Automatic annotation (TrEMBL):
Cofactor(s) the protein requires to work: Mg(2+)
A Pfam family this chain is assigned to: CobS
Topology relative to the membrane: Multi-pass membrane protein
Function according to Swiss-Prot or TrEMBL: Joins adenosylcobinamide-GDP and alpha-ribazole to generate adenosylcobalamin (Ado-cobalamin). Also synthesizes adenosylcobalamin 5'-phosphate from adenosylcobinamide-GDP and alpha-ribazole 5'-phosphate.
GO molecular function annotations of the record: adenosylcobinamide-GDP ribazoletransferase activity
The protein, known as: Adenosylcobinamide-GDP ribazoletransferase
Length: 273
């Protein structure tokens, strides 16, 4: 068991980030552990991107430029894997073709108009939300970014739970589909929401923000939950159209959850008097 979860953690980091890990012999059990550990891989990304974002803001960089550069770092640290999945899924679903033809479109190396537009709007929305939250303080925006990045990987865990079939007989989706028990997925969701609450409280303790500790403790987990719900809606639509999940679907739900969490954080924080 210990060897399996250790291998799963390495697989999660090696698959979802560019950070080097020792090679892993992949099997169904290891894949399940990897998907459970996906939010931990997100934590590594959150720390790295949060340090850059905070550093840029500290030296006087404009919030928008700091947000764009931070998103660029995240793209590098993930090899653009999730954005690529989002673009491929947008092309497949946007084609309005039957499931088999839509999956074939998603497997092509080129990118169509739906994919291009999905990337433009997603990155633009993420940058706008980050720059908006930055007005509340460096620690606050770093916390919101961390919550969003981790929530994106939480959506991957949730999507790989039992009862969600694979859309193909091969590929990443086939390996990880239904590899996480419902209890395991639910436990990870609760832990991430509790972590977001703690980060929200910490942001008001060590940072400067007009938002109270209680509010921040509520806003970040609510935003995370909303991001997960948005990703789940996309997952349901993808399964209806494609018959199941693929690696591209996993990348898409990750980016959608991240984006929705950032937007909800920005909106909810704006509503607080």
């Amino acid at each position: 068991m210990t060897a399996a979860w250790g291998a799963g953690l390495r697989l999660a980091v090696g698959t979802l980030t560019v950070f080097p890990v020792r090679p892993v012999d992949v099997n169904r059990t290891v894949a399940g552990w990897a998907m459970l550990f996906a939010p931990l891989a997100g934590l590594l990304l959150a720390v790295a991107s949060g340090i850059l974002l905070g550093g840029l803001l500290a030296v006087g960089t404009s919030p928008l430029l700091a947000a764009v550069l931070t998103l660029g770092l995240l793209t590098v640290l993930t090899r653009g894997l999730h954005l690529d999945g989002l673009a491929d899924l947008a092309d497949g679903l946007g084609s309005a073709r039957p499931a088999e033809q839509a999956v074939d479109i998603m497997r092509r190396s080129d990118i169509g108009p739906f994919g291009v537009l999905s990337l433009i709007f997603t990155v633009a929305i993420q940058a706008a939300a980050l720059s908006h939250i930055a007005a509340l303080g460096t620690v606050t925006v770093a916390g919101a970014l961390g919550g969003a990045v981790i929530s994106g990987r939480l959506a991957v865990t949730w999507t790989c739970r039992r009862g969600v079939p694979a859309g193909r007989a091969e590929g990443l989706g086939a390996m990880v589909a239904e590899s996480v028990s419902a209890r395991g997925a639910g436990t990870v969701v609760v832990l991430v929401l509790l972590g977001c609450s703690m980060v929200g409280a910490l942001a008001t303790t060590v940072g400067t923000t007009p938002v109270g500790t209680v509010w921040m403790s509520v806003v970040l987990p609510l935003a995370s939950l909303g991001g997960l719900a948005t990703a789940e809606a996309l997952r349901r639509h993808a399964v209806r159209r494609l018959g199941g999940i693929t690696g591209d679907v996993l990348g898409a739900v990750c980016e959608v959850a991240t984006t929705a969490t950032l937007v909800l954080s920005a909106v909810l924080l704006s509503w607080i008097p």
